[in-house]
Specification:
The protein is about 15% helix and about 40% strand. The protein is α+β, with helices and mostly antiparallel strands and about 425 residues long.
């Protein structure tokens, strides 16, 4: 009736005056007792030759240095926080499930939310390669698709007109006199026009007509979606200013946020699976190709990125992606089911089977968790059987009947009531 009352010999309970019941030690109790007895027993060994040992302190016979002491056995039972022994009648009705602590490979799946971005590597411009005034704009608006070779603007440029006339003069001179000097002059004039964005068929047409037009058409040197349209009729441009800024969406970025506690697991080259509502039923595979070296201070997340082929054009910047990052955890950690762990908020406890009717609650240190399993960093040995179904019942039983109290008095086989 009062399990907190414990004595070293038979007698009466001082509270209710009923006979005390003897608590029998099982093999697990004896093991714990032996560990505690050996806790302070030490042996001496050579510092540089640990295989050479002695029961007394002396000089190492190999190198003459003083021996150092080392505990023979650490108290592995120190992590035990509760014990419980069921009665035979209770065992008949108690049908728990057990799982032996096992070393295995773990694959952790991290579910992430991402967004589609324009690839900065695919951004391009259509610049003014020579100064002039815009006379006509062929690109209608931002968002328009521009491809290599498309007409973009007509410009009026005195400098370009002069270069065209120099080409006509050099061409005429070379036609009359095919000397090396005139040939070099012709090639230089052609190259100057090419560098300023004039196509070969254009200045060939000028030669046939023997005239350089006042308005000269410029063509696109890039492919992409217009994200900025700076060209306006009548506007003057200096050399190097952009008529248009383009984004090529043939490849897009998907940027994802990884929480701080998972950030150490992410590395370049890891596979990621992506799903988009714009492409229902399809999984797109990618690889992590960028990890931001700085953690976002507000969200406490790390930005990671993958590049996705988008030649079909279905993925648009701003779309949401549901991502799964599959990570193979290094090594072979000791693993138990998550349902075996009782997390009190201050400690994590598992109930371990030590005999047919005996159980112990042990605190453990856990590591990564994945797919219902948790890696155990400390507190369990391989093959120890933990209670998976029934652990909360054992915990409640221990709480009610004093299983968590006075754990140090089990060595003398006390009697309790």
């Amino acid at each position: 009736m009062h399990p907190q009352v414990k004595e070293d010999k038979p007698g009466k309970c001082p509270i209710c005056h009923m006979n005390l019941t003897k608590v029998e030690l099982d093999e697990s109790d004896i093991e714990e007792k032996n560990h505690k007895v050996l806790k302070h027993q030490v042996i001496w060994q050579c510092k540089d030759f640990p295989d050479v040992t002695s029961q007394v302190q002396e000089v190492c016979p190999l190198d003459g240095t003083p021996m150092v002491k080392k505990p023979v056995l650490q108290n592995k039972a120190a992590k035990i926080v509760a014990k419980l022994k069921l009665r035979k009648a209770q065992v008949k009705h108690f049908k728990p499930d057990f799982f032996p602590a096992t070393k295995m490979k773990m694959t952790k799946k991290i579910r992430l939310l991402g967004s589609v971005l324009q690839s900065e590597e695919k951004e391009s411009n259509i610049p003014a390669r020579i100064g002039g005034r815009v006379e006509k704009v062929y690109v209608r608006s931002t968002g328009s698709l521009v491809q290599i070779g498309d007409l973009v603007v007509d410009i009026y440029s005195p400098k370009l007109i002069t270069a065209g006339e120099e080409y006509l003069l050099a061409r005429e001179s070379y036609t009359k006199n095919k000397s090396k000097e005139f040939k070099d002059m012709l090639e230089q004039s052609r190259e100057r026009l090419r560098q300023w964005g004039i196509k070969s068929f254009q200045f060939e047409k000028w030669f046939r007509q023997n005239k350089v037009p006042r308005k000269i058409t410029l063509y696109s040197n890039a492919t992409g979606i217009v994200r900025s349209r700076n060209a306006i009729v009548g506007k003057y441009f200096k050399e190097g200013q952009n008529f248009f800024e383009l984004s090529d969406l043939a490849d897009v970025w998907v940027e994802m946020d990884v929480y701080e506690h998972d950030s150490a697991l992410v590395s370049i080259g890891q596979k990621v699976e992506l799903k988009f509502s714009a492409i229902p039923g399809k999984v797109i595979h990618g690889e992590i190709d960028f990890i931001n070296p700085v953690l976002d201070q507000k969200s406490r997340t790390l930005k990671v990125r993958t590049t996705i082929e988008n030649s079909h054009g279905k993925l648009k910047p701003g779309m949401i992606a549901n991502a799964v990052l599959n990570i193979n955890i290094e090594g072979m950690p000791l693993v138990i089911p998550r349902t075996a762990i009782i997390d009190t908020g201050k400690r994590k406890v598992v109930w371990v089977k030590v005999s047919k009717r005996g159980f112990r609650a042990k605190t453990i240190q856990t590591g990564y968790e994945s797919e219902g399993y948790v890696a155990v960093r400390d507190g369990l040995r391989e093959s120890e059987e933990v209670v998976v179904e029934g652990n909360f019942l054992l915990d409640a039983q221990a709480q009610l009947f004093g299983g968590y109290e006075n754990m140090q008095n089990t060595e003398a086989a006390p009697h309790q009531h």
